[in-house]
Amino acid sequence: MQYLHAISTLLAAGLLSMAATTAPAAPNDASLPSPRQSLVLLNWSEYIDPELVEKFEQQFNAEVREVYFESDDLRDDMMLETSSIGYDLVIVNGINVDNYRKRGWIAPLDEARLPNLKYVDRHWRDAFEGAGGYAVPYFWGTLGIAYRKDLVEQAPSSWMDILQPAESLRGKIGMIENSRDLMGMALKALGHSANSTDPAAIKAAEQLLLAQKPYVKTYHYIALTEESALVSGNIVAAMVYSGDALMVQEFDENIQYLVPAEGGNIWVDYLAVVESSKNKDLAWAFINFLNEPEHAAQLAEYVYYATPNTAAEKLLPQEFLEDPVIYPSKEALARSEFHTPLPPRAAKKRNLAFARVRQ
Amino acid sequence: MKLRFKLLLLVLPLVVAPLVTLGWIASGELRTVSEGKLLESMRSSLQHLETHSSDQLRTALASIELFAKHTLVKKYVLTEDEGERYNLLQGPLLRAFASFQEAFPQYYEIRILLPDGYEDIRLTGADIENFTDEEAESPLFRAMARTPDRVTSMVLRNPDNGRVSLFVGKPLLLRDAAVDPVGTPPSLRGYLAITADMGELEAHTREDPIGETGYLLATDSSGAVVFQSDRISTPLGLPQQVVTQAIGAAPHSPPLLTTVNGQQSLVEARRLLPDLYVFAVLPHAELLAAGRHVAVIVAAITLVTILISGVCLFLALHFLVIRPLQRLETLSKEIGRGQLDVRHNLRSGDEIGELAKAFQDMAHNLRRSNEQIRFIAYHDSLTGLPNRTMFQDYLNHVIADARRNDRQFALLFLDIDDFKRVNDSLGHQAGDQLLQEVTERLSHCLRRSDYVARMDSLGEPDELLARLGGDEFVILLPDIKDPHGASSLASRLITTLAEPLSIDKHEFYISASIGITLYPSDGKDAGELIKNADIAMYHAKEQGKNDYQFYLESMNVMAHERLAMEGKLRKAIDNDELSLHYQPQVDAMSGAIVGLEALLRWQHPEDGPISPGVFIPVAEESGLILAVGEWVINEACRQGSAWRNAGLSTPPVSVNISGIQFGKQDVPRLLRTALSRHNLDPRQIEVEITESAIMSQPERAVKELSAIRDLGVDIALDDFGTGYSSFSYLHRFPIDTLKIDRSFVHDIGSKEENTEIVAAIIAMAHILKLRVIAEGIEDVEQYAILSERGCDVIQGYLFSRPLPAEQIPQLLKNRIITAPGREPDTATAAEGSV
After folding, report:
1. Are residues A32 and A87 in the same domain?
2. Is A302 found in the same domain as A279?
3. Rounded Cα–Cα distance for residues A34 and A37 (Å)
4. pLDDT of residue A312
5. What is this model's ipTM?
């Protein structure tokens, strides 16, 4: 359904962009009455504060529309299907920024149009190869396990606890349909690096995931609304991104998050402008708008993720800054890894292994 | 040969010949059909595989075209950067491949090979390990590389999983619109390859049966086996020659007959896929066996049918013809054995049944005739009683029965007293009626009225009344407890017969004498029992008639004596032992001797004198009386003649003629012969004849007597008063003298009525001008009375006893005899009537 929804949104976006093309090009002058411009953002759901979007729309006489993706892989599919056409902005996971760049899907940063880039931590901007010049870090976080402390006999503490689940967890586990995350965490559970290229390790991880498969309730990412399976209790333990756990925690206090003993993944999401966008100026403006320190802080508080915007960080309350879920301990971070680019043929192996798991 | 076999031999061929012909034709047809079916099944298996594989190939070719057109495939091969391909495109493409597989599960392997033969992306089932990524040397790649302008398909064993699979590869010739200028010819970017599972084809090849022993075999064009039927355990190669021949055979040509694996087999081939051939191999032996099997079944059915028909025919013949005939045979044999009351048990209404019925009717008619004959043979026609023959048979039967069961029974021999007299006096017709009446009465006295003896019955013997002949009847009383049973019946019979009976309006009184014998005391066999009963009966008669007598041993002795006497008497005539004594007859008035009655005497050399009272009855019974009577007549004449020749003047000699003699002999002729022989004056001879002798045949008697009178011989009626004593017809007989029976004379002194009767007789006789003689005069008083009453002549001991002939001349000298106080002779009773 989400997929269909995405297509319809895409079509709408396509039509709008065509309309934009036919309309006389207008200078980015807010004072002048001009036709409403629009932006299409390919984004995770619940990953932006609607108030900010509204504020931007008013301020720029624009319309921002979101197309949601469910996982990084599925987003890649969506991009491939239209060769990125129809989107103006895209949230890209760090490891894929360079691929998107190579693919020509994202435009190089127009730093002149991004004055607020100065607030963004350089460390996060360059966290991934090729990311610095093409995308602006959006948020960073960890990959860990969210669970219902009231519904599990023993709280999971490691990836192995859900990969080889105890009786009470079986059939109530949610995983993420993402090659790097799924294979990576299985590898970590087996004591390997999440970026391992060792065929034997990859094989073992495949076996582990295949063995877990019968106990997995779903590979679709959990919803972050009140209807979430984690809230209803249909899923009692799930692989989730840190902030998302806090988001659903609002609906049920019993939801807990942890970075497993083997360590998790440290991820960085970037916001990039799609090369084929006809409203690049507006898009740059949108990125710049989001990086206004107040805006960035508001956004962080909305999504419960750590912001790479240093200025915004100063505006955040102490409570937020000390939340171990948002800002994990040094130990947890030390155990965790970034996804790093893989040698092509190793990537191929992992791809095949993942394909077999998902068959 | 028995009829049943003859009939079977006749009928069986009629059944067998068509059946065998039919079986032969059917067998041929069925064999063709059966062989055809086998070949058809072989063809259809091949056809099925051919269709299946061609469908598979067609689908694969269509599928690969479809897959090759997928955007992601195009994008993928146009992406030259490996990292981009693998990190960005592979995931989505793999998902696309997965969705292909979902739609077409048979494509267990979908791959994209780069132009250099590197296997860039591959989706397979979880269980298949990749053998190598470098596919440049693989046959598929080499084939595709050779013909980069078209789709390549081939059947190969997949080194990754060892399974024979259909490989289809399509070169991906694309133009990169982003880089290449328009008009640039598309260049080879890689190959899309799908690998289809041939499991179904293999399963068919392995499992599809061809007949019972035939099998399928898939090979490549060199004859190397790709799949083979599970029926062959060892890998089997087809000789190249066979492969070539079979593959080269024109479609719809008959299967090739060749040697496979050492067996003559029918081989037919089909090309399934490029370089994949399937061979159906059917051992020729099975085809032949199928035909043989059909032939055997048909032969068995035919044989069974023949057997059943044979048995049915046999049974039908047996029950419809043979058995009826056997029964008929049995029937006729039974009839032949005399079993005439047979009843046939043939229910059939056919000719045999009719014949049996005719046999039966014939037997029944025969039985009726037999019964009639037997009845005639065994019965007396006059009375309807069993006759002597039957009685004797029955008696034998009863004797046997009594002997077996240790029983006693009685035999009554009944003889009607004086029946002869009745017969003589009233005629034979009346005699017959009398016998019928007697039969009637006897029957009533017995329990049963059915006298058809049931000799053949095994039951208790019944009483039986039979007529032996004349007036002799016998009654058999089987199973009596004691002699009293027999005597009481005898009394009843006598009483019954004593009732007056009426014949021709005449009333008669009759009586009967009965002799009784008892088995086993009085005789052991039929002859003895009858004879002894007869003896007893005679004894009863002798005892005064109208009575019964049980047989006693002594009677038999007497009978024996009588028999001995008969023999002696026979000799006596020849031996001159007989003699005549003469008793004078004296004129009552003058005392002059007026006649001499010749009386027979027998002086036996050893036994001495034998009384006439003893031997006369023997002579009468034995018939010797005729010879004796003749002798007497002759002797009397001779004596008379002798006396005359001696110069004596003798009174007439009177000769007694027995009733039997009178009935049976021509007495006048005898007299005439004797008189003439001795040249004697007939007046010198008189005859005395009894009343009863005359009265039995009155007509004949008149004639006879007249003839005697005509000779000049006087006739005296002897023993007058004992018989009919009827003066009314006395005058009809030509007689001269009446001799009053001595029984009247005997009591004449003491019984007044006798005196009066004698007086009346004398008076009547005188009226009829008959001379009257009284005999047996023993005393003076009798003489006085008789002479006073006018009796003409007196005879008796008072005057003289009978004297031998030699004393007669002396007696005659006196001529006159007086009767002064002579003592009566004690031998009076012995003075017979002769």
Report:
1. yes
2. yes
3. 8
4. 92
5. 0.78
* A184 and A278 part of one domain: no
CATH number of domain containing A84 = 3.40.190.10
**pLDDT higher than 70, residue B450:** no
User: pTM (2 decimals)?
Assistant: 0.51
Pair type for strands B548-550 and B512-519: parallel
Give contacts of A95 with chain B, Cβ < 8 Å.
Answer: 87
Regarding whether A306 and A168 lie in a shared domain, the answer is no
3-class SS of residue B77: helix
Phi then psi for B813, rounded to 5 degrees?
A: -60, -40
φ, ψ dihedrals at A276, nearest 5°: -80, 5
CATH homologous superfamily, domain B380-551: Reverse transcriptase/Diguanylate cyclase domain (3.30.70.270)
pLDDT tens digit string along A180-234? 899 999 999 999 999 998 989 999 999 999 999 999 999 999 888 888 999 999 9
Same domain, residue pair A350 and A241: yes
B205 neighbors B235 (Cβ within 8 angstroms): no
With CA atoms as reference, the chain B residue closest to A93 would be B88
- Secondary structure percentages of chain B, helix, strand, coil, to 5: 50, 20, 30
Look up the domain containing A215 and give its range.
141-266+329-358
CATH architecture of structural domain B564-822 = Alpha-Beta Barrel (3.20)
Collect all residues of chain A within an 8 Å Cβ-Cβ radius of residue B71.
80-81
Pair of tokens at residue B390: 């039957």
Side-chain-facing half-sphere of B367: CA atoms under 13 Å: 16
- For the residues B537-553, what does the mean pLDDT come to? 83
Strand ranges, E, within B523-577:
548-550
A14 shares its domain with A126:
yes
- Residue B714 carries which side chain, given as an amino acid letter? D
Of A271-275, B381-385, B504-508, the range with the lowest mean pLDDT is B504-508
Distance between CA B656 and CA B633 in Å, rounded? 9
State the total domains in chain A: 2
Q: Give the span between the Cα atoms of A284 and A166, in whole angstroms.
A: 49
- Spell out the residues 6+ positions from residue B227 whose beta carbon is closer than 8 angstroms to its own: B164, B201, B202, B205, B206, B216, B217, B218
**CB proximity B90 to A under 8 Å:** yes
Q: Which residues of B touch A102 (CB under 8 A)?
A: 81, 83-84
Range list of H helices, chain A = 2-22, 50-60, 72-82, 94-103, 122-125, 159-163, 179-189, 199-212, 229-232, 242-249, 280-290, 293-303, 310-315, 318-321, 330-335, 344-358
Other C-beta atoms lying within 10 Å of the C-beta of residue B9: 10
Class of domain B203-286: alpha beta
For residue B262, give both structure tokens.
């050492």
CATH of domain B49-197: 3.30.450.20
User: Which residue among A96, A102, A352 places its CB closest to the CB of B81?
Assistant: A102
Whether residues A85 and A114 share a domain: the answer is yes
Chain B residues inside the 8 Å CB shell of A73: 91-92
Q: How far apart are CA B434 and CA B422, in angstroms?
A: 9
Q: Which of A95, A348, A352, A358 to mutate to test the interface with B (most CBs of B within 10 A)?
A: A348
Q: State how beta strands B608-610 and B578-587 pair.
A: unpaired
Same domain, A50 and A122: yes
